[in-house]
Amino acid sequence: MFTTRRLLSLWLVLLLTAISAASAERQKVIIDTDIGDDIDDAYALTLALHSPEFEILGVTTAWGDTALRARMAARLLATDGNKNIPVVPGVPTHSKPHFSQRTWAEAGPTAPHGNAVDFLLAQAKRYPHQITLIALGPLTNMGAAIERDPSGFRLFNRVVLMGGSIHCGYGNPRATPPPPPEPEYNIAMDPAAARKLLASGVPIFMMPLDSTQWKLDDSKLARVAARSTPATDALLVLTTEWQLATRQHTPTLFDAMAVTYALRPEICPTTPLRLQVDDKGFTRVVEGQVNAHACLKGNGDAFFELLLPRLSAKSLSAPLSSSQ
After folding, report:
1. Would you say residue 63 lies in a domain?
2. pLDDT given for residue 316 in this prediction
3. What would the pLDDT profile of 105-156 be if each residue is shown by its tens digit?
4. Which of 106, 151, 277, 280 could, after both became Cys, cross-link 194 (CB 3.0–4.6 A)?
5. In this structure, is residue 152 part of a structural domain?
């Protein structure tokens, strides 16, 4: 006959087994972001933080003032209860775009130490063929990692990136005809790094302008604001800073589609292509062996059905995991 103590012990074993199984099934990810210029990075990062499917090994920052970007990312993580996720600044560069959320970023913690290239290669070697690298900015950190250790970089399971312009440029992809292709920012800022990534041998899943131009209009923003949480409060402040700095009103959530693809690939099905990047940053389809899979049309309704509830959901902050 079971005693109360034995029942409690059995219950604890079953609970720990379930937690261990759930943890084992989580997708290991690293997010490389140029957070702080456009507002979509903040929404994309918050979506990732609120997605139980992910085990976030770290956040690396790309392009421009990567130290300040790291301070901003660290503040956003801490605000949402995720102080244990490492944030590592990447290769600094000169950036023309205005750091629209500078005021909020400068109130963040001291810039974290470390180097994104070291971090990326170390994690890839620690978890070979297990990590999804989600790239939300120019690809400079990846280019530098490939240059330093191409075989080490090939230990990533895949790269999911927001970037490129296949059949559509900036504007409304659903217009007839759609705006013509043009150099997309994340590719055009560092075409050489994009070419290195396409030649790296790592599976690449690209979310170009064709499938990522989804507007967070006033009605959708109201849904984010309807529930006050640390995450939604931060997003609303950051959105206001971005609106004032850029004199734009409605955010376009380019980067959030890359995170969405890593979660629910059926929302943005991909087409196998061979892509070539020229020195101006055009991403063109050419003949030859496939080197990327690109989403040319996404499901906007399904995208927002996933995104909006998660932005206002409770933080998934958890005790420090063995990977962190």
Report:
1. yes
2. 65
3. 999 888 778 999 999 999 999 999 999 999 999 999 999 999 999 999 999 9
4. 277
5. yes
Contact yes or no for 206/295 (Cβ under 8 A): yes
Q: What are phi and psi of 16, to 5 degrees?
A: -65, -35
Residue 260 within any structural domain of the chain: yes
Q: What is residue 181's DSSP assignment?
A: P
* Integer CA distances (angstroms), 324 to 56, 145, 290, in order: 9, 21, 35
Q: Which domain holds residue 142?
A: 26-311
Residue from 216, 246, 215 nearest 232 by CA: 216
Rounded Cα distance, 188 and 91, in Å: 17
For 177, phi then psi, to 5°, come to -75, 165
Other CB atoms closer than 10 Å to residue 299's CB: what's the count? 17
**Ordered alpha helix ranges (H), 93-164:** 102-106, 116-126, 140-148, 150-153
**CATH code for position 118:** 3.90.245.10
Cα separation of 50 and 210, whole Å?
A: 26
- Each as own residue / partner, the long-range contacts of residues 119-122 (CB below 8 Å, 24 or more positions apart, any chain) are 119/30, 119/58, 119/60, 119/86, 119/88, 120/30, 120/32, 120/60, 120/145, 120/153, 121/145, 121/148, 121/149, 121/152, 121/153
pLDDT digit string (tens) for 216-267? 999 999 999 999 999 999 999 999 999 999 999 999 999 999 999 999 999 9
Q: Which runs of consecutive H residues, i.e. helices, occur in the chain?
A: 4-25, 40-49, 66-79, 102-106, 116-126, 140-148, 150-153, 185-188, 191-198, 209-212, 218-225, 230-246, 254-263, 300-311
| Domains in the chain, number | 1
In a domain, 2, yes or no: no
Q: Is the pLDDT of residue 56 over 90?
A: yes
Q: Indicate the average pLDDT of the chain.
A: 91
Place of tokens 């102080």: 83
